[in-house]
Write a structure and sequence with these properties.
Elements (H helix, E strand, L loop, with lengths): L4 E12 L2 E12 L3 E5 L6 H8 L5 E8 L2 E2 L4 H6 L2 E4 L11 H8 L6 H13 L2 H5 L10 H13 L5 E5 L7 H18 L2 E5 L3 H7 L2 E6 L2 E7 H5 L3 H6 L7
This protein binds adenosine-5'-triphosphate (ATP) and magnesium ion.
The site of adenosine-5'-triphosphate has 13 residues, from strand 2 and helix 1.
Length: about 240
């Protein structure tokens, strides 16, 4: 079903001031998939997404998108159809919902297209349409996360990179956010790579998953296989891991 490889991270390493965050990491994303990245704090999950988006100091390996190496600058990567929604739902708190969505589409010069894209993004999040004139700082945590995702959709990306979309949200809201991600994937055919610590819920919507520990991939496979194995417990309790 998902047989066309869209994005390949090949054997990359990342060092921050001499400290190793990733060592020889390879992951791939096939068109139409939802792929989860899991692992303990500091494992290097965010570094993978940042590497793809040109925001991490990659010191080796390569990143291939649609058969070609990704360009170095973030705005060039975004222009290819990759969107990154960082950890910590950063919305512009003093701008209203609609203005935040306009910021997401700042690269779109045709006002009509921008307007249509904003409406399409709001189709997934009726609450944002209702609150389109509300200052985003007044929204709940869940609504802010939805706004951050919607803002990423305004560019109509082919690939959505999501970093910890459920962080700090109540379980009921986590479920809702994950359902939205699934809807976006199903209706727009957006390919998704999502970092998540909420393992049970993410495996419900992901096709495949990678487990990272200390900067290396320690397991990967289809989601159902993880649900039936104890590898995650072992990684999170420190029983398995990269040296
Ligand atoms: N800008 C930076 N400068 C220095 N070290 C960094 C920087 N960003 C990340 N690191 C280090 O690199 C390692 C991997 O970090 P990364 O943020 O990728 O992990 P993570 O798996 O996303 O963790 P978390 O679950 O806490 O978000 C960690 O040891 C972290 O302290
Ligand atoms: Mg992180």
């Amino acid at each position: 079903m998902h047989d066309e490889t869209l994005l390949q991270v090949k054997n990359i390493s990342v060092h921050y001031n001499g400290v190793r965050a990733l060592k020889g990491v390879s992951v791939r994303l096939d068109r139409g998939e939802i792929v989860a990245l899991m692992g303990p704090n500091g494992a290097g999950k965010s570094s993978i997404l940042k590497s793809i988006f040109g925001l991490a100091p990659v010191s080796g390996g390569e990143i291939i998108f649609r058969g070609r190496p990704v360009p170095p600058a973030t705005h060039q990567i975004a222009a290819l159809g990759i969107a990154f929604i960082p950890q910590g739902r950063r919305v512009f708190r003093h701008l209203n919902v609609e203005e935040n969505l306009e910021m997401g589409g700042f690269m779109i010069h045709d006002k009509k297209i921008l307007k249509r894209r904003i409406e399409e993004a709001m189709d997934f999040f009726p609450v944002l349409r209702r609150k389109r004139k509300a200052k985003s700082g007044t929204l709940s945590g869940g609504e802010q996360q939805m706004l951050a995702i919607a803002r990423g959709l305004v560019t109509d990306p082919e690939v959505l990179l999501l970093d910890e979309p459920s962080l700090g949200l109540a379980p009921k809201i986590v479920k809702e956010v994950f359902q939205k991600i699934r809807q976006i994937n199903a209706r727009r055919k957006t390919t998704v790579m999502v970092v998540e610590h909420n393992i049970k819920s993410i495996l419900d919507i992901a096709d495949r998953a990678y487990v990272l520990d200390k900067g290396k991939i320690v397991a990967h496979g289809e989601s159902f296989a993880f649900l039936e194995s104890d590898i995650l417990e072992r990684v999170f309790l420190g029983g398995v891991g990269a040296k």
